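User: Reviewer 2 asked us to show a designed sequence for the structure in our supplementary figure. I'm pasting the structure tokens here. Could you produce the per-position amino acids so we can include them in the response letter?
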């Protein structure tokens, strides 16, 4: 048994909820913010023995009195570790008879669920059943919902595993009904989209573009125009963050043509991508035209099946505002009206319980607000806007957030910011920001 499980058992921390409650108290003592693990991440620690990412380790050490390296070593069942902290009051004192406690029951139960899942995916060699497709549908929806809200490292292995399961089913020749084949290709397109976005977040644009082409092929096989347009949008996004604005504009325009007659929000996203790419190219007329079209079409949106998925597959009003502000900022604008819109975008993403909340969109909006304030000479206001971004744990610092922060640093090196102490300190912090990013998984 791991020392980690033994200490949890002795302290009565039998469930992920128990552990999270104690984790929050320890994080508060350390003054750690924005480094709370998702419940599924905690389940991986307890039931699967997965070692926590670095962002969480100081809090775990504070909570249990051991380093993570100590906790992830074997401990004798009958020995109480000498350096264990005094046990607090038991949060879950329930234990079943015959010496089997609740955390062991849940761990073995989780193993049984995984085995049953593998059985279901491998059963019925000559066909794919409705239960198999339902299982994949549930997992895809979960991953879509979690992706914008947690560090990539928290979902990466599940993304790759689920994508592999879909590919195996598509390659195995077990699908007989056309509707099932279409459903599997839709799953393949959605998962390929998320994996490609993951590579982009890790700043690996070549692999990101390759995986996007795989997603696009699945979307075409499914004959799903919305997903085809989305994959063109993702190609645009990858090119945009890789500083290839001409390619970004090309892909966004291509996708916008495909989505021209769709009533969902995918067409609006592609117009926003067009506007951002045009802004980098200095094409102010195209920026204004694309944003005007998006604003007009917003009034006539009818949410479709992609919008119902949520996550990266819908384009909310808050995200549209974030994109339109960014396009203006890229043109170098910073008037009072734009400052109000930038503040509204930050406020729109400040509610973590909102269905469209995404840590990347919040950070991007905060960087845009900092730029608007710098353009008007408000260095103190820019520093205040950047503070939450600079305080992000390393596991949240994806490629888009780093590029956005570097844009702020670039303006700070110019004449607008001057040589104020606040400007120098902020510039120094941003220069160190990308260096402390060791927690993203490798491709």
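Assistant: Here is a per-position design you can include in the supplement:
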């Amino acid at each position: 048994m791991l020392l980690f499980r033994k200490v949890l058992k002795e302290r009565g921390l039998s469930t992920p909820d128990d552990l999270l409650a104690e984790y929050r108290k320890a994080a508060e003592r350390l003054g750690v913010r924005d480094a709370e693990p998702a419940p599924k991440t905690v389940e991986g620690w307890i039931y699967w023995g997965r070692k926590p990412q670095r962002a969480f380790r100081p809090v775990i050490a504070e909570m249990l009195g051991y380093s993570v390296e100590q906790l992830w070593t074997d401990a004798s069942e009958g020995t109480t570790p000498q350096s264990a902290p005094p046990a607090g009051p038991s949060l879950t004192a329930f234990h079943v008879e015959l010496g089997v406690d609740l955390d062991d029951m849940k761990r073995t139960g989780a193993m049984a669920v995984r085995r049953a899942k593998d059985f279901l995916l491998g059963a019925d060699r000559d066909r794919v059943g409705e239960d198999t497709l339902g299982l994949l549908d549930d997992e895809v929806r979960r991953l879509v919902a979690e992706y914008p809200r947690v560090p990539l490292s928290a979902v990466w292995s599940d993304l790759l595993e689920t994508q592999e399961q879909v590919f195996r089913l598509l390659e195995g020749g077990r699908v007989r009904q056309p509707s099932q084949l279409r459903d599997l290709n839709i799953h393949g397109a959605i998962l390929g989209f998320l994996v490609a976005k993951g590579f982009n977040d890790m700043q690996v644009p070549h692999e990101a573009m390759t995986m996007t082409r795989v997603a696009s092929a699945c979307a075409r096989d499914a004959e799903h125009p919305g997903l085809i347009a989305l994959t063109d949008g993702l190609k645009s996004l990858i090119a945009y963050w890789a500083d290839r604005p001409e390619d970004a504009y090309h892909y966004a325009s291509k996708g916008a043509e495909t989505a021209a007659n769709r009533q969902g929000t995918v067409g609006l996203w592609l117009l926003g991508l067009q506007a951002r790419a045009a802004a980098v190219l200095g094409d102010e007329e195209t920026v204004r035209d694309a944003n005007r079209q998006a604003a007009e079409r917003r009034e006539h949106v009818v949410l479709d099946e992609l919008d119902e998925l949520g996550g990266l597959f819908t384009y909310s009003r808050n995200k549209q505002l974030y994109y339109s502000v960014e396009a203006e900022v890229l043109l170098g604008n910073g008037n009072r009206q734009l400052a109000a819109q930038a503040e509204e975008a930050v406020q729109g993403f400040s509610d973590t319980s909102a269905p469209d909340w995404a840590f990347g969109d919040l950070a991007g909006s905060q960087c845009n607000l900092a730029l608007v304030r710098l353009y008007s000479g408000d260095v103190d206001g820019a520093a205040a806007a950047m503070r939450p971004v600079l305080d992000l744990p390393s596991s949240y610092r994806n490629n888009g957030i780093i590029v956005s922060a570097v844009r702020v640093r670039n303006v700070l090196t110019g004449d607008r910011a001057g040589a104020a102490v606040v400007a120098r300190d902020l510039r120094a912090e941003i220069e160190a920001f990308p260096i402390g990013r060791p927690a993203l998984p490798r491709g």
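For the response letter, you might also mention the following. Residues 236 and 356 are 21 Å apart (CA to CA). Residues 77-102, 438-443 have pLDDT under 50 and may be disordered.
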